[in-house]
């Protein structure tokens, strides 16, 4: 329940919630916008795997995390394509153009509305028997740089492989890491490519799995479990493509409008209760929209704004 109270001559907006944080991550209490978003995610997932209905590969590069090696995939994931191109000793002009054109026009909207692993995380956040946890300042300080480390290591590996390939005749200088280093241990790759292929090829997967397979499974579990407690944990703290896109999102034209009639503290109190990406606004910001680079346009703030007050957030 939300309320506001008057103080002296002016109006001070004070918000108190009654289980608002849990409500925002309860599937049964989602509004039409969120159901439409999940329907869009599902349709996108079907499109990505259109070989199931007889279509062939399209060569399209999608600007979100997708594993090209998925058994029924008809498109190419942007980050995997970026690594693959660099590892082949070619400057990734087309891939970078796709990534930054998307980031500078619509931001990370595809992360919130199309990414398959984002969809999985959304539904993990709806598991009713798990109590969602807010990310404290202490936790944030410990995990906020993980995505930059992942981005740096994976791209450095791709550059080294590309340099090695151009200087020698060795085809796979880093073994399984020679084409797309991040995808080898990517939880998205394990879930949507490695496990399906293994199940199709070999029914006794766990009995015959080698060391690399067990590491992949362990990393998948290590990603899934935090996502149960912290909504969009992977997108927020680990995804290297998200990190790559963030610097360009300040130029995007697609934004979520916000009310300037409320203080930054009040807006952040609301966002703290509903935003899976931990988006906050500067206290003294006079901007008419949310400028945070982590915003994925999921619309949770629009769905859960206090309805009896003036509009607070609007999709634009």
Instruction: Report on the biggest sheet.
Output: 2 strands, antiparallel
- Unreliable parts: 1-18
The first-to-last residue Cα distance is 27 Å
Give the mean pLDDT: 85
Biggest sheet: strands side by side, in what order? 1-2
Q: Count helical runs.
A: 16
Secondary structure tally: strands = 6
User: Over the alpha carbons, how many angstroms does the gyration radius reach?
Assistant: 21 Å
Structural class: mainly alpha
- Helical content (DSSP H or I, runs of 4+): 40-55%
The coarse overall form would be globular
- Number of discrete domains: 2
Secondary-structure element pattern, one letter each: EEHHEEHHHHHHHHHHHHEHHE
Strand content: 5-15%
Descriptive overview:
By secondary structure, the protein is mainly alpha-helical. The protein folds into two domains: 5-23 and 255-315, no CATH class; 56-103 and 134-246, no CATH class. 49% of the residues lie in helices and 5% in strands. The strands form three sheets. Strands 1-2 form a two-stranded antiparallel ribbon. The protein is globular and about 65 Å long.
Summarize the entry for a quick read.
With 316 residues, this protein is mainly α.
């Amino acid at each position: 329940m939300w309320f506001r109270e008057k103080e002296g001559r002016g109006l001070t907006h004070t918000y108190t919630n009654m289980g608002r944080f849990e409500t925002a991550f309860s599937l049964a209490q989602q509004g039409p916008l969120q159901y439409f978003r999940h329907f869009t995610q599902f349709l996108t997932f079907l499109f990505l795997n259109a070989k199931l209905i007889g279509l062939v590969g399209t060569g399209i590069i999608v600007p979100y995390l997708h594993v090209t090696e998925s058994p029924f995939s008809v498109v190419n994931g942007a980050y995997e394509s970026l690594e693959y191109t660099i590892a082949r000793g070619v400057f990734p002009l087309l891939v970078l153009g796709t990534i930054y054109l998307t980031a500078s026009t619509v931001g990370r909207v595809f992360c919130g509305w199309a990414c398959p692993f984002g969809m999985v995380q959304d539904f993990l956040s709806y598991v009713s028997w798990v109590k969602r946890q807010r990310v404290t300042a202490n936790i944030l300080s410990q995990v906020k740089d993980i995505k930059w480390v992942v981005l740096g290591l994976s791209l450095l590996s791709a550059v080294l492989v590309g340099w090695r390939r151009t200087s020698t005749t060795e085809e796979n200088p880093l073994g399984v890491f020679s084409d797309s280093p991040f995808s080898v241990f990517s939880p998205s790759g394990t879930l949507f490519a490695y496990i399906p292929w293994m199940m199709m090829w070999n029914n006794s997967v766990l009995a015959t799995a080698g060391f690399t397979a067990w590491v992949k499974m362990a990393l998948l579990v290590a990603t899934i479990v935090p996502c149960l407690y912290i909504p969009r944990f992977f997108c927020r703290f680990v995804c290297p493509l998200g990190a790559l896109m963030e610097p360009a999102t300040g130029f995007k034209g697609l934004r979520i409008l916000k009310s300037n009639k409320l203080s930054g503290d009040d807006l952040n109190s609301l966002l703290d209760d509903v935003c899976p990406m931990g988006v906050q606004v500067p206290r003294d910001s006079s901007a008419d929209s949310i400028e945070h680079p982590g915003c994925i346009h999921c619309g949770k703030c629009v769905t859960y704004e206090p309805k009896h007050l003036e509009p607070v957030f609007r999709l634009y």
